[in-house]
Write a structure and sequence with these properties.
This protein is mostly beta strands and 328 residues long. It has a single domain, classed as monomeric porin ompg (Porin). It has helices at 2-10, 24-27, 294-297, 314-321; strands spanning 39-48, 57-66, 75-86, 91-106, 112-126, 157-173, 176-185, 205-215, 220-231, 234-249, 254-264, 268-277, 280-289, 300-311. It has a 14-stranded antiparallel beta barrel with strand order 1-2-3-4-5-6-7-8-9-10-11-12-13-14. A hairpin with an 8-residue loop joins strand 2 (57-66) and strand 3 (75-86). The longest helix is centred in the first third of the chain and has 9 residues, at 2-10. It is globular and about 75 Å long.
Length: 328
């Protein structure tokens, strides 16, 4: 019963990640091409409800984006792929998105920025009800999967989808920055019903997020962040902070690790950890379930792994390696 309820509710809500600060292409299209480098590869894995279902919910995502694409200053372009697999019903959501963004630096020192982005996506959604148990398949003693269920298998859904976003930030340096963003997903509210006689809209998802970093010592930073999402009758609020310790912080090398504590209102608390080794970032998090499902889950929620890798051009690398001569 629990698994079926979880699968059904998941049909009308978008996928979410606990590490929203490490999933740029899935948080706001305005983040497309917003990084220091030329190419950025990102990936993430999330597994949820392993304690209550033999078939846990699984989400896999990945993407690549380019900065100053086609040699146009401030133009970002990206491609992201997502697969979400929900429980015993094998409800599967596959999506591909093409994103574009424009980045404008403002202010006399060019430390402020306005970033605008949008995406065009295509998704498919399907399920397999033959894997579920139904009342009609109870033979008086036990469940008999050979008996007809009396249920109708829905059709696969194939739709276009659109989103847009804006992000405004102020960057003093890599350790001192603050930004606020707004994003709207599912702008056209596509119908995701698997039956022609009924309608089931994918509600617009309104998302607001804050990301920041402030030095609190020679080698430590505090990075408060938050995210609020509203989608039809559903809402979600995340707030917390990470603490980052710089192992090496120079023009030619950057290495650090971080850990964070986060809360998702009326749902979960979670911890995160991350390791930055030059242009590679690896993050992990674990959710402790605090919702009404806590008696069934025994506090066990979801685990998540993220990865970001940035490739710089030869010219960009030479800028980082350039040092002042001894006579200056």
């Amino acid at each position: 019963m629990t698994v079926l309820i979880l699968s059904t509710s998941g049909l009308s809500q978008d996928v979410h990640f606990s590490q929203f600060f490490a999933t740029p292409l899935f948080t706001n299209p305005a983040f497309t091409g917003h990084f220091d480098g030329t190419y950025r590869f990102s990936g993430m894995i999330r597994r949820q409800w392993q304690s209550v279902s033999p078939e846990p919910f699984q989400t896999h995502g990945g993407g690549i984006d380019l900065r100053d694409a086609a040699k146009i200053k401030g133009l970002g372009i990206g491609l992201s792929l997502l697969q979400d697999f929900a429980g015993l019903s094998s409800t599967t959501f596959n999506q591909a998105k093409l994103s574009l963004a424009s980045h404008i630096r403002i202010g006399s020192a060019k430390r402020g920025g306005i970033h605008l982005g949008g995406t065009v996506g295509y998704f498919t959604s399907s399920n397999d009800i033959s894997r579920l148990s139904w009342n009609n398949q109870f033979n008086g003693t036990q469940h008999d999967p050979t008996l007809p269920s009396g249920e109708i298998q829905g059709n696969q859904v194939n739709k276009l989808n659109y989103s847009g976003g804006i992000y405004v930030d102020q960057v003093a340096n890599e350790r001192h920055r603050f930004g606020v963003g707004l994003a709207i997903q599912n702008i056209a509210e596509p119908d995701i019903s698997m039956f022609k006689a009924s309608e089931n809209k994918m509600f617009r998802l309104y998302s607001a997020h804050v990301l920041s970093s402030f030095p609190i010592g020679a080698t430590w930073d505090i990075m408060p962040a938050g995210r609020a999402m509203i989608q039809g009758p559903y809402d979600q609020y995340i707030i917390g902070t990470a603490f980052r310790h710089h192992l090496v912080d120079s023009e030619i090398s950057k290495q650090s690790f971080q850990f964070g504590f986060w809360g998702r209102w009326k749902d979960a608390g979670y911890v995160s950890a991350g390791l930055q080794m030059e242009d590679l970032y690896v993050g992990a998090s674990y959710d402790v379930n605090l919702s009404l499902l806590q008696p069934a889950t025994n506090y066990r929620g979801a685990w998540e792994v993220t990865l970001i890798y940035i490739i710089r051009t030869v010219r960009e690398k030479s800028k980082r390696l350039r040092v002042c001569p001894d006579y200056l």
